[in-house]
TrEMBL record:
Annotated source species: Lapillicoccus jejuensis
A Pfam family that the UniProt record links to this protein: Amidase
Protein name per the record: Glutamyl-tRNA(Gln) amidotransferase subunit A
Organism phylogeny: Bacteria, Bacillati, Actinomycetota, Actinomycetes, Micrococcales
Subunit structure as annotated in this protein's UniProt entry: Heterotrimer of A, B and C subunits.
Keywords: ATP-binding, Ligase, Nucleotide-binding, Protein biosynthesis, Transferase
Xref: InterPro entries: Amidase (IPR000120), Amidase_CS (IPR020556), Amidase_dom (IPR023631), AS_sf (IPR036928), GatA (IPR004412)
GO annotation, cellular component aspect: glutamyl-tRNA(Gln) amidotransferase complex
Keyword Transferase: yes
Catalytic site positions: 83, 158, 182
Family: Belongs to the amidase family. GatA subfamily.
Catalysed reactions, as listed in the record: L-glutamyl-tRNA(Gln) + L-glutamine + ATP + H2O = L-glutaminyl-tRNA(Gln) + L-glutamate + ADP + phosphate + H(+)
GO biological process, one term: translation
GO molecular-function terms, A-Z: ATP binding; glutaminyl-tRNA synthase (glutamine-hydrolyzing) activity; transferase activity
C-alpha cells in the first residue's frame, strides 16, 4: 500500500507516471499533499492560503477525464503551489502585504490559466517577502517562512514560501518569481532546483509588478526534469504581455532527459567567487565543476568586470521601478483603506498617505523612498540613468563571455541559510545575498540553481548557478541534469534525502 509519505516524496515525473497508469488517482495524490500540509505547515509556514476545495475539485475533474479516455497533459493531476504574487481568480492574492489583505482578483494570471488548462490542482498560494522585496521571506506581513533543514533559518527570498513548500514535500512543484534571484537563491538554501527563464519567456500578465524590466516567473521543483516539465507548461508567447517573446518554448524537457555535457565549455565567472563566499559553498562548487569536467566538459575562466557594479545598479533600477509600480496602491480602488486619526473629513491625499503608512512594511517604504529619490528632478541622470548604462555594460560582458563559453557557472549564493533575524536590521548585508544572481536579471538571461551539496561548516545546502544566453534556456537543463546525475551517484540519491525529518503534528 502506498502511504501519504511515499506519495509526497515521489518526483513530479514519477507522480505523472502513476497517474497515467491509474495506479493512483489525482484525488489521492492531492489529498496526500493536503494532509502533509496539515501536518507540517504550522511549523514551516509555506502557505498564506490553502485551497483544499478547489484543488480537490480540479483533481476530481482530472480523474473523470482520465476514466473517460480523454487525452490529458503529462502533468494532469500533479499538484502545484503558486507564489502569492500571481493573480488567481477566486483565491486571495496579497503579495505578502497588508495593503492587499483579503483581495480576491477577478482574473487569472496567464501562467495560472496554463496550469489550470493542464489539469494541475492548485494547492494554494505561497508566502513571500512583501511585494517580492527581500531575500529571506522575513518581510512578509504575515510572518516568515522557515527552512525545512533548520526551522530557525530562512528559506531564502523573496520566494521562500515556494522553495520551502517543495523542500518540505508539501507540493512537488511550485511557481516562483525572480527579480534579482528570488527563485534561485531560495533554491540554493533549501536544496531544491529553481529556474529563472529568459526575460519574456514566461508571461508576466497577472504578475503583480515589482520591477517590470526585471521580474520573471519560473518553476521550482526537487529535480531538474520536474523543473523542466513545469517550465514547458508555463512558458510561451502571450499577446497580453508586450514583453513576451514570440517564439516556441525552448526544448527544456528534452535537454533535461539528455543530460550530456561532453564537448561543452563551462565559463567560471571570475567576479562571482572569492572574498565573501563561505568556504563550504566554494568547496562544493569546485567539486561540482570537477564532476562536470569528468563527464566531458571543458572549463575556462571568464572575466566580467562590470559585474562588480551590478548590485549598485540593481538597487537603483529596482527601487525606481518599484516606486512607480506601487503608486497604484492608493486606497482609492481596492486594497487597504484607513483614515488619518483625528480628521473628520480627510482629503483623498490624507487617506492615501494614511493607508500606505499603515499597509506597507519598512522594507517596501525604504525602497519606495530610494526609488522616488533616484527618479526625482535633478537626480535622474546621476542615478537611474547611470545605472542603466551599467546595465548595458553587464549585458555586453555576458555577450563577450558567451563567445568562449556555452554556459557560465558560479555559486548561487555566497552563504548557506542564515538564522531568522540575523540580518533583518542590516539591509546591506541582506542585499548581498543576491550578489551572484542579480547580473542575470539585469541582462535578461536565464539562470538555474541546482543543489551542489552540504557545507562543511553547518551541514546546510549549497547551490550551483548555471547561466545561459537569452532564449537558450535548454542549456541550463542539459548542464543541470548532468550535474544532478553525477551528484546523485556520489550521494546515493537526492540531497533532500539527507534533510532532517520534520515533526508532524
Amino acid at each position: 500500500m502506498t502511504t501519504t509519505r511515499d506519495l509526497t516524496r515521489l518526483s513530479a515525473a514519477e507522480m505523472a507516471s502513476l497517474l497515467s497508469t491509474r495506479e493512483v488517482s489525482a484525488v489521492e495524490l492531492t489529498q496526500a499533499h493536503l494532509d502533509r500540509t496539515a501536518a507540517v505547515d504550522g511549523a514551516v509556514h509555506s502557505y498564506l492560503h490553502v485551497d483544499q476545495v478547489g484543488a480537490l475539485a480540479q483533481a476530481e475533474a482530472v480523474d473523470r477525464a482520465r476514466a473517460a479516455g480523454e487525452d490529458l497533459h503529462v502533468l494532469a493531476g500533479v499538484p502545484v503551489a503558486v507564489k502569492d504574487v500571481m493573480t488567481t481568480r477566486g483565491l486571495p492574492t496579497t503579495c505578502g502585504s497588508r495593503v492587499l489583505e483579503g483581495w480576491i482578483p477577478p482574473y487569472d494570471a496567464t501562467l495560472v490559466t496554463k496550469l489550470r488548462e493542464a489539469g494541475m490542482p492548485i494547492l494554494g498560494k505561497t508566502n513571500m517577502d512583501e511585494f517580492a522585496m527581500g531575500s529571506s521571506t522575513e518581510h512578509s506581513a504575515y510572518g516568515p517562512s522557515h527552512n525545512p533543514w533548520d526551522l530557525e533559518r530562512i528559506p531564502g527570498g523573496s520566494g521562500g514560501g515556494s522553495s520551502s513548500v517543495v523542500a518540505s514535500f508539501q507540493a512537488p512543484l511550485a511557481i516562483g518569481t525572480d527579480t534579482g534571484g528570488s527563485i534561485r537563491q531560495p533554491a540554493a538554501v533549501t536544496g531544491t532546483v529553481g529556474t529563472k527563464p529568459t526575460y519574456g519567456g514566461v508571461s508576466r500578465y497577472g504578475l503583480v509588478a515589482l520591477a517590470s524590466s526585471l521580474d520573471q516567473a519560473g518553476p521550482c521543483a526537487r529535480t531538474v526534469l520536474d523543473t523542466a516539465l513545469l517550465h514547458a507548461v508555463i512558458g510561451g508567447h502571450d499577446p497580453r504581455d508586450s514583453t513576451s517573446i514570440d517564439a516556441p518554448v525552448p526544448p527544456v524537457v528534452e535537454a533535461a532527459r539528455r543530460a550530456d555535457v561532453s564537448g561543452m565549455t563551462l565559463g567560471i565567472v571570475k567576479q562571482l567567487g572569492g572574498e565573501g563566499y563561505q568556504p563550504g559553498v566554494r568547496a562544493r562548487f569546485d567539486e561540482a565543476v570537477q564532476l562536470l569536467v569528468d563527464r566531458g566538459a571543458k572549463v575556462v575562466e571568464v572575466d566580467c568586470p562590470s559585474f562588480d557594479y551590478a548590485l549598485a545598479a540593481y538597487y537603483l533600477i529596482l527601487p525606481s521601478e518599484a516606486s512607480s509600480n506601487l503608486a497604484k496602491f492608493d486606497a482609492m480602488r481596492y486594497g487597504l483603506r484607513v483614515g488619518p486619526s483625528g480628521v473628520d473629513a480627510p482629503s483623498a491625499e490624507q487617506v492615501m498617505a494614511a493607508s500606505r503608512e499603515a499597509g506597507f512594511g519598512d522594507e517596501v517604504k525604504r525602497r519606495i523612498i530610494l526609488g522616488t529619490y533616484a527618479l526625482s528632478s535633478g537626480y535622474y541622470d546621476a542615478y537611474y540613468g547611470q545605472a542603466q548604462k551599467v546595465r548595458r555594460l553587464i549585458a555586453d560582458d555576458f555577450a563577450k563571455a558567451y563567445e568562449t563559453a556555452d554556459v557560465l557557472l558560479s555559486p548561487t549564493a555566497p552563504t548557506t541559510a542564515f538564522k531568522i533575524g540575523e540580518k533583518l536590521d542590516d539591509p546591506l548585508a541582506m542585499y548581498l545575498n543576491d550578489v551572484a544572481t542579480i547580473p542575470a536579471n539585469l541582462a535578461g538571461v536565464p539562470g538555474m540553481s541546482v543543489p551542489s551539496g552540504l557545507a562543511d561548516e553547518d551541514g546546510l545546502p549549497t547551490g550551483l548557478q548555471i547561466l545561459a544566453p537569452a532564449t537558450a534556456d535548454e542549456r541550463l537543463y542539459t548542464v543541470g541534469a548532468a550535474l544532478e546525475s553525477a551528484l546523485h551517484e556520489r550521494w546515493g540519491g537526492p540531497l533532500l534525502a539527507k534533510a532532517p525529518e520534520l515533526k508532524e503534528s
